[in-house]
Design brief:
oxidoreductase activity; eight-stranded mixed sheet; iron
Length: about 350
């Protein structure tokens, strides 16, 4: 891939900055006033909650659930999924092992330091622009599928239960994503297999985000505003600390997580495939002075070298193709080079 092999500057771990006890944050993390987090009047609104208890593998016979999913994807781009079939015990164990990793000594974590070539491993920045304003967060990025990219040796060896727990978690969420994809396809008026077929084959990866305590949370963000470049994201958030904000019209809404729920959001690839029937929506992450926060973003993406454009059946005389085609490999280079930049990337695909 067309990407630099090394970071343009020495990487500083945000956790180290937090642990230093400094009363201020470095200038590199101070956002322009227009980009800083705030609480809007619209914050009293809640994103949809969808009960998946009746969503079986035979999604064609789950009309009410399918319509609830489709409605959320059309009007919000986000929803909270409850009764999704993933064990709450597994969700808790996954959070616990990853929190354990981020609390290991720095020299142990540094064994997995990543590079911008693949982003795989322990990282502290997105984007390779020298002098860029950075986000207040560290992360660990890894692959599940295709199997040729998954390498257990690149996953942390400690805590001892991490690799086994991560395998179990990845299998459970991949199964959930396959059900959701079929439901989203029917919600577009297509056959259940049509949207998955457009992916050709699935690419599955995960970024575990760790947002340390911040002495000046009003000046920075844990993750800048962006829409996800992939297909669909299933997010497991911290069970004690809020931080995710979703843009709705001109307001930023702080998500209040439902216990044992996943937060599901549409990515840019599904917006393109659906010809904008489903919307990928900007979101960002606030940080906290009193508490650290951990989240696990599970990305379900199309095969990376297949051109992705509007599905033929969704292109009509009244609604022509709104986007030109591009492979996911080429598409994700944007965020890997420039970091999160709102929805500027998907807008660049709009047909003339």
């Amino acid at each position: 891939m067309d990407c630099l092999r090394d970071w343009p500057e020495a990487v500083v771990r945000v956790q180290s900055l937090s642990d230093s006890g400094a009363a201020t944050i470095p200038d590199r993390y101070v956002k322009p006033p227009s980009e800083r987090a705030s609480v809007d009047p619209g914050d009293m609104v809640r994103i949809p909650v969808v009960d998946l208890a009746m969503l079986t593998d035979d999604v064609a016979n789950c009309e009410a659930t399918v319509m609830a999913i489709a409605d959320a994807c059309r009007h919000w781009g986000f929803f909270q999924a409850v009764n999704h079939g993933v064990s709450p015990g597994l969700m808790r164990r996954a959070r616990e092992v990853w929190r354990g990793f981020f609390h290991l000594p720095m020299e142990e974590k540094q064994r997995y330091a990543n590079s911008p070539k693949t982003y795989e491993g322990y990282g502290s920045r997105l984007g390779i622009e020298k002098g860029a304003i950075l986000d207040w967060g560290d992360y660990f990025f890894l692959h599940f599928l295709p199997l040729c990219l998954m390498d257990h040796d690149k996953w942390p060896a400690f805590p001892p239960a991490l690799r086994e727990t991560n395998d179990e978690y990845g299998a459970a969420l991949t199964k959930l994503c396959r059900r959701l994809m079929r439901a989203m396809s029917i919600g577009l008026g297509l056959d259940a297999a049509r949207l998955p077929m457009a992916f050709d084959d699935e690419g599955v990866c995960m970024r575990v985000n760790f947002y340390p305590r911040c002495p000046q949370p009003e000046l920075t963000l844990g993750l800048s505003a962006h829409s996800d470049p992939g297909g669909m994201t299933v997010l497991l958030v911290d069970d004690h600390v809020t931080g995710l904000q979703v843009r709705k019209n001109d307001s930023w809404i702080t998500v209040q997580p439902v216990p044992d729920a996943f937060i599901v959001n549409v990515g840019d690839q599904i917006q393109v495939l659906s010809n904008a029937a489903y919307k990928s929506v900007e979101h960002r992450v606030m940080v906290n002075a009193a508490a650290e926060r951990l989240s696990m973003a599970f990305f379900y993406n199309p095969k990376s070298d297949v051109p992705i454009g509007p599905i033929r059946e969704l292109v009509t005389c009244d609604r022509p193709a709104l986007y030109r085609s591009m492979t996911f490999d080429d598409y994700r280079l944007y965020i890997r080079k420039k970091g999160p930049r709102g929805k500027s990337q998907v807008h660049s695909l709009e047909a003339a």
